[in-house]
Design a protein that fits this description.
By secondary structure, the chain is mainly beta. Helix content is 9%, strand content 25%. Strands 8, 12, 13, 14, 15 and 17 form a 6-stranded antiparallel beta sheet that branches. Strands 1, 2, 3, 4 and 7 form a 5-stranded antiparallel beta sheet that branches.
């Protein structure tokens, strides 16, 4: 029996994951995962529920919520619509509604089918009689059979109205699921019917123990999957196998049987390409639809016109095909035996004579897939155990769904998926906090980490609570600066002040506003330079005021303003003198650079010449008298010295004449002083008179 991974579930998300893997149970749902839309005006307070919910394949239809149902607006008239993508022949429509007592949100709906886009609610049905949708089925499922009709667009319209105290409106249209089917046709394996027309080719065949696994063994109608025992498989070492059907056929499905022994993974992953010619192939599938099992059943929806099919690996490697089958027709109802009187629940192809299957549909087991699963098991051949259902309850044997929900930390229809996307708790409806790196605990939501538990700005253990105002950073251990502008609270993650700093702090260099302005600057963002503070001292970094006053020539609290004209000095409290031409004096020293007005003198032009004249003259006379006295004294001293010298010479000469008779060599002692006699000396005046004395 094939691996459980080969099963195909009509109603589960596995079906949604690939457009090809779909079982023949009740036919191919043409609406599955197609584009859907709905009337969106005048929604209820709960808002709109997605129109795509009606084509997601989920027919559990419970509870009535935004996950399982659509919910339109309430305008006149609400509608829901699906686009099948291309034009199909359809003959059956199934509409799943609510299963409770609320029927008005679907009962009495109308159907509009069209091959072109539907733009209004004018409905014309392409069959003779409108189905009676006013009778609400007990199970909530409207199963509508119509004659075979071409259709691409299908619209459901809620036609009746209801009265409210305010106005006439309709109920919103609420739908769980919509399925659209084409005519039931039988398809059967094609290759054996046309065996003489097909040609097969492949890469280099594998040989082993005298066996050659040639290209034709994949279509020898032997479905055994143990090549070393049965010698019934095609094996190539360079990864490609191709069949030409001889002419074009409308193909509905392709089946590839791989090996089931220890080398079962030789087929994963592989690619299937189809086309009219060997040189013009289109890739229709790439991967491994059954997660490595031996059986691969790929449906083509819609069926394609094909002549050549190639199975290959994008990276050359061993490829094993034990049997390759192509289906042009297939029985869709699971019946088998004489007159098709017996019923099995096979997944894919089965022996219509005996009912034997490769695998069973979910919920059944046995050779003919007729036995239901035991409690606690579900799925194909009943080999899967139920997930983490709430309080240990059993899941549904066919779907694997836990009817009462999941244990904390698990979610999904099967309750076998741990919470993801940062969720935890019951049905994973709670969201993890701001954990630092790892996801939170799936059950209680606690965060864990090595260096730190939470992202910056949040408190442990769940990291779902922001830091208290005034704190920030890892686990809120740091305090905000008190210097944020306007008393703002800093950012709780990084501590940044949102609107800058108070005056006196450097926001450009420190956005946390802990750093004061450097000396000589002040104000918002330290953008202002200090004024001319006294003795070069620095100003206050917040308001720029000079605490000890201004330098000479400046005034104001910030010492930015020069003295007004006519004032100078410290604090500008001294008035200027009488500068020439009414010029402004120097605002630091008070000096008049242009000179003084008449009658004033001094650097600052503050001295009145008339008032100072007498004092000036008296001073001048005293100076002149002192100078005269000093001059006479100097001359007298000079004369006295001259007379002394002269007397000494004279006395020396007289002594020589009387006592020394020798001639002493040398210069003559006579000089100009020798001609001065005593009378002349006596005639020298003793005091001097200056010419300016008169």
């Amino acid at each position: 029996m094939a691996s459980p991974a080969t099963w195909c579930v009509l109603f589960l998300s596995i079906l949604i994951a690939t457009p090809f893997a779909q079982c023949f149970e009740t036919g191919i749902n043409l609406a599955l995962n197609k584009n859907a839309m709905q009337y969106s005006q005048d929604p209820l307070p709960d808002g709109l529920w997605s129109a795509e919910n009606a084509v997601d394949g989920d027919k559990t239809c419970t509870p009535v919520d935004s996950t399982h149902f659509t919910l339109s607006g309430r305008g006149n008239q609400p509608w829901w619509q699906v686009d099948l993508g291309i034009i199909y022949n359809i003959d059956r429509i199934k509409v799943y509604g609510r299963r409770d007592s609320v029927h008005a949100q679907l009962q009495g709906f109308l159907i509009h089918i069209s091959t072109t886009a539907i733009t209004d609610n004018t409905f014309t049905l392409p069959f003779n009689q409108t189905p009676d949708t006013n009778i609400y089925p007990a199970n909530g499922v409207f199963d509508i059979r119509i004659s075979v009709t071409q259709a691409r667009y299908l619209r459901l319209i809620l036609g009746h109205t209801s009265i409210t105290p305010l106005n006439w409106i309709t109920w919103p249209i609420v739908i769980c699921e919509v399925e659209v089917f084409g005519p039931n046709e039988r398809i059967s394996e094609l290759i054996q019917t046309i065996r003489g027309d097909v040609t097969v080719s492949m890469g280099i065949p594998e040989t082993n123990g005298g066996l050659t696994f040639s290209k034709d063994k994949a279509i020898d109608h032997n479905t055994r999957t143990d090549p070393n025992a049965c010698d019934c498989c095609s094996i190539t070492t360079d990864g490609w196998w191709m069949i030409d059907l001889g002419r074009r056929y409308l193909i509905q499905a392709i089946q590839v049987l791989g090996r089931s022994d220890a080398h079962f993974n030789e087929n994963k992953p592989f690619t299937v390409s189809v086309g009219d010619l060997k040189t013009n192939l289109t890739e229709i599938y790439s991967g491994n639809p059954n997660q490595g099992s031996k059986s691969y059943f790929i449906t083509l929806n819609p069926a394609k016109v094909i002549q050549v099919i190639k199975v290959w690996k994008k990276t050359p490697a061993i490829l094993t095909i034990c049997e390759f089958q192509v289906y042009g027709l297939e029985c869709l109802d699971g019946q088998f035996g004489q007159g098709c009187q017996h019923k099995g629940f096979c997944n894919g192809t089965y022996d219509m004579a005996t009912g034997e299957c490769l695998t069973c549909l979910a919920g059944y087991e046995g050779h003919t897939c007729s036995k239901a699963c035991d409690k606690g098991f579900f799925g194909p051949d009943c080999i899967y155990q139920c997930g983490h259902c709430l309080t240990g309850s059993h899941c549904d044997a066919q779907t694997g769904i836990c009817p009462q929900g999941c244990d904390n930390g698990f979610k999904g229809l099967f309750c076998n998926r741990g919470c993801e996307h940062n969720t935890y708790g019951e049905n994973c409806t709670s969201h993890c906090g701001h954990c630092s790196s790892l996801p939170c605990d799936l059950v209680n939501g606690y965060c864990s980490g090595h260096a730190k538990v939470c992202e910056q700005g949040f408190l442990p253990p769940k990291c779902d609570t922001e830091c208290l105002d005034g704190t920030f950073g890892d686990e809120c251990r740091r305090n905000c600066s008190k210097n944020c502008s306007g008393g703002d609270i800093c950012n709780k993650k990084n501590g940044l002040c949102p609107n800058g700093c108070l005056p006196g702090y450097n926001f450009t260099g420190d956005r946390l506003c802990f750093t004061e302005c450097r000396l000589g600057t002040y104000g918002l963002n330290c953008a202002e330079n200090c004024g001319n503070c006294r003795d070069g001292l620095y100003c206050n970094t917040q308001n720029g005021q000079c605490m000890f006053g201004c330098d000479r020539g400046y005034q104001g609290a910030e010492c930015q303003n020069e003295c007004e004209d006519g004032w100078y000095g410290e604090n500008c409290n001294v008035t200027c003198g009488f500068c020439k031409y009414n010029a402004v004096c120097d605002k630091v020293s008070g000096n008049c650079k242009s000179g003084c007005d008449r009658g004033y003198r001094g650097k600052q032009c503050k001295n009145d010449e008339k008032q100072d004249e007498s004092a000036t003259c008296e001073g001048q006379t005293a100076v002149e008298l002192l100078a005269a006295f000093l001059s006479v004294s100097i001359i007298g001293n000079v004369v006295t010295v001259a007379l002394y010298c002269r007397t000494k010479i004279w006395l020396r000469q007289g002594k020589e004449d009387t006592t020394n008779h020798y001639t002493v060599p040398g210069p003559s002692m006579s000089s100009e002083y020798s001609t001065i006699d005593v009378a002349e000396m006596n005639s020298i005046p003793t005091d001097r008179h200056y010419a300016n004395d008169g």
